[in-house]
Records
---
Amino acid sequence: MNRVTYSLPACLLHWLMALLILAMLFIGVGMVGSLGPWQHRLVSLHKGVGLLLLGLLLLRLAVRLRQSPPALPASIPAWQQRLAHAAHVLLYGLMLALPLLGWAMQSAGGYPLVLLGWVLPAIAPQDVDLYAGLRSAHGWLAYLLFASILLHLAAALFHGLIRRDGVLAGMLRGRVRS
């Protein structure tokens, strides 16, 4: 059996982002499903964590470029390896698209994003119709991200509980490759 291990920075970034993304999905559902007194705080939290996730993703991409992930075990058929690669490309694409869409949506709505006291530049023109379209796209892509996460989790559990090929163990333990 091949041992599949990931670098410690890759593991830490994976699990930190996983927790923050799941929190973001639930915060997003809560803020759009409520007009209560907590909505404003949820929106502010959602914006801040979204910007944090964008920064963490850029760091994660830098780590991944510097230290590529280990190869999947040879026992996994080539078509499944291609599917796994495509699933990761989708996850990374959604992790990039969602905060950028959120930023563009806020820009189109005329709502400035503030990061550590700095007002970030608008990345889209202020336009009500554009705001509505971006808001809809942001919501639909969030659902797609949630579905992708569920598939990712199912695949990880399949590797850990059924195949027992070390793929899940390598990410859970965060061992540094030798």
---
Amino acid sequence: MTMTKSHLAVFLILGYATSTYSEEKRPNIIFIMADDLGRNDISFYGENKNGVETPNIDRIFRSGIAFQNFHANSPVCSPTRAALMTGLYPDRAGVPGVVRQDQAENWGHLRHDLKLLPSQLKSLGYQTSMIGKWHLGYESPNIPNDRGFDHFHGFLGDMMDDYETHLRIGKNWMRHNLEEIQPKGHATDLFTSWAVDEVKSLSSKAQPFFLYLAYNAPHAPIQPGLSWLDKVRKSRPELTEKRAKLAALIEQMDDGIGQILDTVKSSGIENKTLIVFTSDNGGQLNLSADNGPWRGSKGQTFDGGLRVVCGATWPTHIPAGLKTHITSATFDWYPTLIEMAGGDLSKISSDGKSLQPVLENPSNIAPYENRELYFVRREGGLPYSGKTIEALRLGDWKIVLNTPFEPAQLFHLRDDPFETRDLSDDQPIKKRELIQRLQYHIQRGGQITWQIK
């Protein structure tokens, strides 16, 4: 944890180490999720060395806390989103793999009996809205308005075949609440515009609000607006065409996030609003994403597929410039946000661990040391055949099963953070221990139906 003496003084003087949030101090919450964003594909993490400029996303990280060891709960979309919404490991939420419109290729069905994050916050007096990509169900009862969101303006599906037409395999999944819509424009710009309007509307009311903004960008197809691509080509001619397109798509999203940050400020709610930014999984290397030195890509259970960006800002509660190296994951935000909204964590069930202690006091790292985290992905096709791939981290140890058809590999992340040396032969007892722990998680997930009945 990086914290200066001045940071600590600010915490003590302003009373940031309080354990609960009173009714008047409960924050508005804006949670922004990118899609397939590489760990180093923002300039804050990439240190402006990889051809991408994200000044607005960087504002979130520089004005608050940056999580240096943050993980998605899965290396693909739907399972991580299910973990955020439920606080559970994805297979325990009924979503071990990608939810798709074609049932022959579908690998998840969100549990009906769970109270999702927006429902939890709504019961605590919050207004709840979602803008953007849902990807947890195409029909009732698993669409946003059924699962706790008062307002939904976005896309139900997995990916768009075109950012301008918004179709997926010929079908339109754009919705305004329950109404099918056909808006014109680039999806990234549409989601930004709708989010700006929603912030203005929500901030005018007395209740606190929860706004979940999930961009499709920079998921394939890598299709930025032409003006954004032209800008990148002219300013960074050294980039390959593939890399320039990805940079332009990310920067188009970054500009939208800047508009939202500016709207929060101009609406007079900046000091009472928590803003979180992260990604659902790592970047796709064959589309020129940059996951930094970590091994692997989107879809894989090496850290390149799992380690993602995460930052949070709340000016009156989180001093600027903090960094934490605690081991944490997407589903930790479920109990965190409920607790910050005044909820009683003893009354909810969550596999995640609240991050409120580290947000309140960055030196409080003990709850996150030697932590166990489990990752899963189920998929079809020849590489997977409907089976799962997994990983399990226990402190500095990690067991990886990156395909269903090869032996598990064992790594020690403190000595080998980039997973280059399989220690299976050297550490058979440790490997056996982690395999047993992994089996326990697989058995728990096996109790949950993940296919539509």
---
Amino acid sequence: MKLHNQTFIITGASSGMGKAIALEFAHQGAHLVLSGRSEEKGNELVSAIQKRGGHSFYFPGNVNDPDYNKLLVMEAEKKFGKLDGVVCNAGMLGLGKLTVLDKETWRETFGTNVDAAFFLLRQALPVMEKNTRGVVILNASIAAFKSFPEHPAYCASKAALVALGKQLALDYAPHIRVNSICPGPVDTPLLHDSAVAFPEPDKALENAEKATLLKRLGQPQDVAKLALFLASEDASWITGSVFTIDGGIMARS
């Protein structure tokens, strides 16, 4: 198992890509501290992991809260004795044109997509440095490079997350590897929420599928497999990199 006896924190783990990453990491032997807003979904995930023989704990809370992020790191050390990696996966769309977007939505979007990574990594990096090894995976988006209608906060925050990942790779090498994943249209609740920004949401989803060279939407498991690769020793010489996983959409640009 590629992550045997390693401890990871995964945010936004209760659904979509975060859930798929949690299940994949657990299958590969990782011990998990899981974060999300829904206690019900989190408990269901923990139960599914336990049925497969995995070890995980779920802590519902708001990733925008510095104290909550501190708790996640403390619990990882308390329950598993160490911390080997972090997957910053929690995300928010914050839809609306810039001139109609209220400042609270703008700030909350940046809070969820960028500030939460700052709060968590500020606590987690020193712990991983103490162990002289660690892995950070930031789940960004092709929206960091490609514009979508009525997504100003989302596009800007995901671009910031990519830049942050490259900078952290520089400061925390050689012991901690930091890489970013930039998914395209993955069939998750967030994608369907995103489609609402288009005049015809159903048509937008259909067009997104057609825009891929592989002619299908991504599945959460596709992203989980990439996250597993980056978390494992298979990627031991990879840091500061950005991985687009979009079925080939960006190849058209």
---
Amino acid sequence: MHLLMCPPAYFDVAYEINPWMHLDNVPNVDKAKRQWDALYAIITDRIGARVSLIDPQPGLPDMVFTANAGLVEGCVYIPSRFRHAERAGEVPHFERWFQDRQYHRKPLSDGWFEGEGDALSYAGILLAGYGPRSSAAAHPELARILGRDVLSLGLVDGRYYHLDVCFAPLGPNMFAYIPEAFDEAANRALLGLPGEKITLSAEDAQHFGANAVVIGRDIILNTGANSFSAALTERGYHVHETDLSEFLKAGGSAKCLTLILER
């Protein structure tokens, strides 16, 4: 697997755009750097996946969360359309990075879309979250550009403002999710999907267990999602727990810090 990450040189909580962010609870920058370095080392040294880096930019503290940079399929790059102005400044930097590497930029013309944060593949379908940050209006064009079926899933709990903080595709026949994060129609749709479903406890959800990096049978997640970690181990996964507490203060964890470039 090939991932994109961004070093946390300018990471901070400088505004509040989700329920986890509080200006009176800012991250320890040095600790955050150590946590990011540990995640990077697990991905590259322990698991052996490939990571490319984009240079962080001053004034863009959330650029570290590369999952929101857009969506990549093959050589096609669909840039994000951020709902919040605080993050919109990231877009030209990500677009330039992908352009320099010969990706075909395919921008959306309608709706908000926050990249892989709200678009995850499972069982051959692209699951797309909408509500707090992305909008369903973007989904038809997303389906047309990619030539794929898109299943729209309504998110109703502000704590789980992106799909990747409440849903984790674990393989072709298994996923984990937080049912209360989804509306009634979305829950019906998820139950109708093939494969085993693992529901996360409130404690697992609080520790961002669903925001996991999945690389084959290796799964990286924040410490503290103990029941979920045990369930994964019982099913034969190799679980790598790493402390990402400083990034939780901004509403992100392991998956938020990575964007899939190639599976």
